[in-house]
Amino acid sequence: MNHDLRTVMRHFATGVCVVSTFADGADGRRHDAITVNSLTSVSLDPAIITVCFRHDSRFLADLRAAGVWGVSILDSESEAHARAFAKGPESRQTALAGAAHSIGDTTGVLLLQAAGWMEVAYRDELVIGDHVMVIGEVVALGAADSTAPLIFLQGGFHTLDELSRL
Fold first, then answer.
1. What is the 3-state secondary structure (H, E, C) of the chain?
2. Which of its termini does the chain have fewer beta carbons within 10 Å around, N or C?
3. What integer pLDDT is reported at residue 120 of this predicted model?
4. Where is the Flavin reductase like domain (predicted)?
């Protein structure tokens, strides 16, 4: 076999979102956010979603401890957010300081100004290979009028308009 899974999956288009959570410590609450494209809607009743993280992710450890997380579904005008939150923890902290956001009323997580958002409560997790699939119940959500979604395909960010010209 001359292709690996990553090479093949580059041909599968996904949406892009930023997942946020927090850690409470002696110095107060530290928020964090990370770009993911592994968001999956699993059930409508109850409203269940999943996201996946590497086993050794500090973000995953914070999410487990907090028991809640937020999802901001990015639109085509949010590529800068997608790139900023795809970096390491220190860069993400800088990006959070400059990103327009609100605090979720139900969970206290940060929600970016985005096409759609969800506040989610931890329900379970499943270890799968080199990742952990976190399963959560949506406890609050909303959507805004927005432009086209931000798409991740072939290792880069795209818009639907751009993809239609390929």
1. CCCCHHHHHCCCCEECEEEEEEEEECCEEEEEEEEECCCEEEEECCEEEEEEEECCCHHHHHHHHHCEEEEEECECCCHHHHHHCCCCHHHHHHHHHHCCEEECCCCCCEEECCCEEEEEEEEEEEEECCEEEEEEEEEEEEECCCCCEEEEECCEEEEHHHHHCC
2. N
3. 98
4. 9-159
